[in-house]
């Protein structure tokens, strides 16, 4: 039995890297120079992990500009540990380019990656492989910053199960390794996970097998085998978010097509993608201008005090009834604060008087809407989140051709607005969304709607990707199915059939169906043997199927609501999920605060261990 305390971190992507960084920051004050063994377990290389690994297509981009990506804390992050500043992605690439930072092995061995660094500007959207190189550097810097006596051991493999008593050492069983790891504490930072198909996907797969069709269930697009999708034939694609954008890229440029002066020149190897979804439109473009003017003073109507008041209510909370009205009011405040400050000619009231009336009106009330309508005469300048969420509600077209043209006009208008500082209230709402996320991580289970809405409004594709989508639509390589897209099967003809509500009567038959969305992370469908074993061992799941954790420090909760003293979890498979493992500089970084709380709790526990504990 080792006398050295041992921590096992399962997951070496950006979340695991963030935990290592916070251990390095907090250990000098909390751990007192004692030895510590940290075992890092992941089948993929540390830093980038699976999603940001070097081994993927260089055509795949991040959906954030280089200046908007950091792994380092600043004074806007709510944490108890020390701030350890560091370069954002754009500053890091400049350091590499100008010789202040030595490039890692991925860059040194890859001329294409080196060329990307040499050409990158702060407003460019980097490749995922470049982000992976940055994450690898952050990981190496974090390990180097650990105090003497703290040693990291890397294990390239999968963790299959964690066993052990609540009051004793834990055993981590690894795939392909007879000898398990013994740990005083275990932290799960698993990232996005694969899942078994649900009943509908199994039914569709069986239908495809019977008729010799192609069915690709929800998956990470970069890992999907797209070679079976035939050139020139229609493919039904269900899902219009970032997974679709990746699919679009890999099936067009990835098959030899190219863009020239805004026109797509096909290679002849592309399928024809018929894409539809619940909304029927793509996620909103990322905002494409530098932030003008001051930030809205947030939080204002949905801050820690409001969150605490809601959490202390005796009755169960319903997100749409109890929480959403406050979120809506907070986002509205961000919007109107910017509108009054930057575009007073589009308002008819004094800001101080408007703010007083806005504050006095109840969230979600007719009185609040009346205050807004009286001060903002043009409906286009009012924030209507319901209309944003359902842009095609009630919209009908008599022909597929007219709908294609209308959708192209919608995407063009979105691009124009998202790249026009004259609508900088949109950026204020984006900052409001980040602020809101920082409060919502305290709530144990808010369901899936909010996360989807956040991604649709704030985490959409880069503008250049939507311009490519427009070119593909004009070239006939992508066609739009509309809102409320449904997919059925025809046993007699042996085809998939898709229809949308926007063009009544329009039907499409295809021999291929792609589900362009991430797998369901719920315990019923997770393919992770590790998570399944945790649930079997008594870990609790929320109503929406996420691993239940203490929002304060990430300890895994059992079915009685008791936190496990030796098991922690962070990331999208937990009820305390955030908008991402990294963030835009100076926007609070909720994930960084979570990492800090978990690292501090782990260090305090490990420091308190006696020689016979376990």
TrEMBL record:
This is FAD/NAD(P)-binding protein. The lineage of its organism: Bacteria, Bacillati, Actinomycetota, Actinomycetes, Kitasatosporales. It comes from Streptomyces poriferorum. It comes from the Bacteria. Residues 8-192 form the FAD-dependent urate hydroxylase HpyO/Asp monooxygenase CreE-like FAD/NAD(P)-binding domain.
């Amino acid at each position: 039995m080792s006398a050295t305390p041992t921590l096992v971190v399962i997951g070496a992507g950006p979340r695991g890297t963030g935990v290592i960084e916070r251990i390095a920051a907090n250990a000098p004050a909390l751990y007192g120079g004692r030895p510590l063994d940290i075992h890092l377990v992941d089948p993929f290389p540390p830093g980038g992990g699976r999603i940001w690994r070097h081994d993927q297509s260089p055509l795949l981009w991040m959906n954030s500009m280089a200046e908007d990506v950091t792994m380092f804390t600043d004074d806007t992050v709510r944490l108890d540990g020390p701030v350890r500043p560091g370069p954002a992605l754009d500053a890091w690439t400049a350091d590499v380019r100008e010789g202040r930072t030595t490039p890692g092995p991925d860059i040194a061995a890859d001329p294409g990656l080196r060329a990307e660094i040499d050409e990158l500007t702060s407003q460019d959207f980097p490749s995922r492989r470049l982000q992976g190189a940055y994450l690898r550097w952050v990981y190496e810097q974090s390990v180097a910053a650990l105090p003497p006596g703290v040693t990291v051991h890397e294990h390239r493999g999968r963790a299959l199960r964690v066993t052990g008593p609540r009051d004793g050492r834990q055993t981590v069983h690894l795939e392909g390794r007879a000898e398990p790891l013994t740990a005083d504490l275990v932290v799960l930072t698993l990232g996005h996970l694969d899942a078994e198909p649900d009943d509908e996907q199994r039914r569709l797969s069986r239908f495809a097998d019977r008729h010799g069709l192609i069915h690709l269930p929800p998956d990470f697009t970069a890992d999907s085998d797209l070679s079976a999708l035939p050139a020139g034939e229609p493919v039904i694609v269900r899902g219009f978010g970032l997974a679709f954008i990746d699919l679009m890229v890999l099936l067009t440029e990835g098959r030899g097509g190219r863009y020239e002066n805004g026109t797509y020149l096909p290679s002849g190897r592309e399928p024809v993608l018929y894409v539809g979804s619940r909304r029927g439109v793509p996620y909103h473009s990322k905002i494409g201008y530098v932030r003008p003017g001051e930030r809205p003073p947030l939080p204002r109507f949905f801050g820690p005090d409001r969150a605490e008041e809601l959490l202390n209510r005796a009755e169960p909370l319903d997100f749409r009834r109890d929480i959403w009205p406050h979120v809506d009011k907070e986002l509205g405040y961000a919007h109107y604060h910017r509108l009054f400050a930057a575009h007073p000619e589009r308002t008819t009231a004094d800001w101080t008087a408007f703010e007083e009336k806005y504050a006095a009106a109840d969230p979600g009330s007719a009185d609040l809407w009346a205050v807004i309508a009286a001060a903002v005469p043009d409906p286009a300048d009012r924030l209507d989140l319901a209309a944003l969420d359902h842009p095609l509600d009630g919209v009908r077209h008599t022909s597929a051709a007219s709908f294609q043209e209308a959708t192209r006009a919608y995407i063009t208008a979105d691009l124009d607005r998202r790249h026009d500082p004259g609508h900088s209230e949109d950026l204020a709402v984006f900052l409001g969304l980040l602020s809101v996320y920082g409060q919502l991580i305290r709530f144990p289970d808010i369901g899936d709607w909010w996360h989807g809405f956040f991604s649709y409004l704030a985490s959409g594709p880069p503008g250049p990707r939507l311009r490519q989508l427009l070119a593909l639509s004009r070239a006939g390589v992508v066609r739009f199915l509309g809102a409320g897209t449904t997919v059925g099967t025809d046993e007699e003809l042996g085809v998939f059939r898709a229809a949308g509500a926007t063009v009544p009567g329009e039907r499409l038959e295809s021999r291929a169906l792609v589900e362009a969305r991430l797998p369901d992370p719920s315990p019923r469908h997770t393919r992770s043997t590790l998570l399944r074993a945790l649930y079997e061992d008594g870990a609790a799941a929320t109503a929406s199927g996420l691993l239940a954790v203490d929002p304060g420090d990430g300890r895994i909760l059992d079915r009685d609501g008791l936190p496990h003293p030796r098991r922690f979890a962070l990331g999208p498979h937990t009820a305390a999920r955030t908008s991402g493992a990294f963030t835009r500089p100076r926007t609070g970084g909720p994930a960084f605060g979570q990492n800090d709380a978990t690292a501090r709790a782990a260090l305090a526990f490990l420091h308190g261990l006696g020689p016979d504990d376990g």
